[in-house]
């Protein structure tokens, strides 16, 4: 059994997965995109290093920028920086692939074979999730992918709305759902939704980061 994911013993009616850092080891790639975007928009070099980046895992990109503005006294345009970051991420994926996380991807394959409902609830906006799945060669049907665009403005993680929408689309009671997450905001969202949660352990930081 992997130390990174401890699978629950209980069988649930519905399974919800965060994407980045939970199904696909894409967090280092997202980090590189964030570093480029923030440098281009005037953020200080010490802002949003690895530890701060991982603490924001699962949050919508504009919300992250707004939080950085508050923390560092900046006035970056949240939507513009978020879009620039998404563009950086897309350009990286044009030449690089992403590794799957074997335990969670293996679970999704079993759920698909058994006809058990599953969904992705992510803080990334389209087409980012589809690009990530493609770069990881995770070629399974994902009929339910819920992003911050599918819930009211400002209701991304750590609010429960994304996961509650997943449960609604699966037709499963939220209390019969389990969420797989790697980020604190997503774990808070799962608790707020009344769902059990499984923590996916973090990927090691890039060289030179802590």
Give a verbal description of the structure.
42% of the residues lie in helices and 9% in strands. By secondary structure, the chain is an alpha/beta fold. Strand 4, helix 8 (184-192) and strand 5 (196-199) form a beta-alpha-beta unit. The protein is globular. The model has no long low-confidence stretch (mean pLDDT 94).
Itemize the secondary structure elements and their pairings.
Blueprint: E1 14-17, H1 27-40, H2 50-55, H3 61-72, H4 78-93, H5 102-114, E2 118-121, H6 128-135, E3 145-146, H7 161-170, E4 177-181, H8 184-192, E5 196-199
Parallel strand pairs: 1-2, 1-4, 2-3, 4-5
Helix pairs in contact: 1-4, 3-4, 4-6
Q: Please state the CA-atom Rg, rounded to the nearest Å.
A: 16 Å
Q: DSSP helix count? A: 8
Distance between the termini: 26 Å
Mean pLDDT: 94
Dominant shape? globular
Give me the secondary-structure category.
alpha/beta
Question: Could you spell the SSE succession in H and E letters?
Answer: EHHHHHEHEHEHE
Main sheet, how many strands, which sense, barrel? 5 strands, parallel
Please state the oligomeric state of the protein chains shown.
Answer: single chain
Strands ordered across the widest β-sheet:
3-2-1-4-5
The poorly predicted ranges are none
Number of strands: 5
What percent of residues adopt helix (DSSP H or I)? 40-55%
As a percent range, the share of strand residues is: 5-15%
């Amino acid at each position: 059994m992997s130390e990174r994911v401890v699978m629950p013993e209980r069988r649930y009616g519905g399974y919800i997965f965060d994407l980045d850092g939970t199904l696909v080891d894409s967090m280092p790639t997202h980090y590189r995109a964030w570093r480029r975007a923030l440098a281009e928009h005037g953020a200080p070099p010490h802002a949003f290093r690895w530890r701060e980046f991982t603490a924001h895992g699962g949050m919508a990109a504009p919300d992250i920028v707004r939080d950085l503005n508050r923390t560092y006294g900046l006035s970056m345009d949240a939507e513009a920086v978020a879009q620039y970051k998404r563009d950086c991420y897309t350009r990286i994926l044009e030449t690089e692939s992403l590794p799957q996380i074997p335990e969670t991807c293996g679970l999704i394959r079993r759920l698909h074979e058994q006809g058990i409902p599953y969904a992705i609830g992510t803080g990334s906006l389209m087409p980012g999730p589809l690009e990530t799945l493609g770069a990881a060669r995770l070629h399974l049907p994902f009929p339910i992918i819920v992003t911050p665009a599918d819930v009211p403005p400002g209701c991304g993680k750590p609010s429960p709305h994304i996961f509650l929408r997943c449960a609604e689309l699966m037709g499963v009671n939220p209390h019969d759902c389990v969420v797989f997450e790697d980020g604190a905001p997503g774990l808070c969202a799962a608790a707020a939704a009344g769902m059990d949660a499984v923590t996916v352990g973090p990927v090691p930081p890039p060289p030179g980061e802590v």
